[in-house]
Write a structure and sequence with these properties.
alpha/beta; TIM Barrel; two-stranded antiparallel ribbon
């Protein structure tokens, strides 16, 4: 595994982290979840990314992670970096969502209980809710660190102006923003200004959804397979998003990957990491085999200038951004 320093801090993260957004909840096969988590740890992935609402059902990804930690990784806590978040819908009532101090503090307490931990390494504000003052949310994060419930804090998906204000507030209160997390892939380059700002401000940067919710897995080069994610009636990738421009772009990108001796997802992940300001890319896998395939992304050859130019020309086409 390769490790990079997280922004201006002394913390190193593996360039590949394991995300528990999907496939670790109560509706999923626990034995497969356990196998993936242990394979990741044995492969040098020491950062596990969670949120209070991950499941389904919400909260069960944290519960299952805590169970695996106790049963198989007891004694390895100090070798592992655990991050979790709060801000999206979690429990009924007006206090179970958003970025208020009440929600942030209560969510952290609940997450610690579900995972059976005394503290998390990173606690994120999962989103800017458009209502709560940034100062209120950031002070809640500062207080979590001062109380010993979190070692570091981060932000996720904050718009550019609010992102800047978060950095300023946290720095002024001696709790600098360790890391910023944004959606980024070949089909979503909208976070480039956020990466620029994070780099200038000394915050690490983590990319999630590197395969564009599956569009860059290579499954959709010839349309929508009946057993694919997009074929389901519910989920984050819908049939309407598997458009001809995205299919065509995927085919062209796949051809470049083949030239490089890689699969399309391997190249897509390595392309994000080509920018050394990116601290880590979060993998979302459904099997040990898929995890093993993704792990090979860091073994690919360097990109040539011609390959980078061709990739940029493809992904700059209209109609690709998710």
């Amino acid at each position: 595994m390769i490790y990079r320093y997280c922004g201006a801090s002394g913390i190193q993260l593996p360039v590949l982290s394991l995300g528990l957004w999907h496939n670790f909840g109560s509706v999923d096969d626990f034995s497969v979840a356990r196998q993936m988590l242990l394979k990741a740890f044995d492969s040098g992935i020491c950062h596990f990314d969670l949120a209070n609402n991950y499941g389904p059902e919400p909260g069960t990804a944290e519960e299952n992670f805590g169970k695996i930690l106790r049963q198989q990784l007891q004694g390895h806590r100090d070798e592992i970096l655990v991050s979790t978040k709060a801000g999206h819908d979690m429990w009924p009532g007006v206090y179970g969502t958003g970025s208020s101090r009440k929600n942030i503090i209560a969510s952290c307490d609940q997450s610690l209980r579900r995972m059976g931990l005394d503290y998390v390494d990173i606690f994120y504000s999962h989103r800017y809710d458009g209502v709560t003052p940034v100062e209120e949310t950031m002070q809640a994060l500062v207080d979590l660190v001062r109380s010993g419930k979190a070692l570091y804090v981060g932000i996720s998906k904050y718009p550019l102006e609010q992102q800047r204000r978060c950095y300023e507030y946290l720095r002024e209160h001696d709790t600098p923003c360790l890391v910023s997390q944004y959606r980024a892939s070949m089909f979503n380059t909208l976070a480039r200004p956020n990466l620029d700002l994070a780099s200038r401000e000394g915050s690490g940067f983590i990319c999630f959804s590197p395969l564009a919710q599956g569009l860059l897995t290579g499954k959709y080069l010839n349309g929508i397979p009946e057993d694919s994610r997009a074929a389901k009636a519910t989920g984050f990738l819908q049939r309407t998003q598997v458009t001809e421009p995205r299919i065509e772009a995927s085919r062209l990108l796949s051809a470049i990957a083949e030239e490089r001796g890689q699969s399309l997802p391997q190249m897509a992940i390595q392309w994000l990491l080509h920018d050394e300001r990116v601290t880590s890319v979060i993998l979302g896998t459904s099997s040990v085999h898929q995890l093993e395939d993704n792990l090979l992304s860091i073994e690919g050859p360097d990109f040539t200038s011609d390959q980078l130019s061709r990739i940029e020309a493809i992904i700059s086409r209209d109609g690709l951004t998710l």
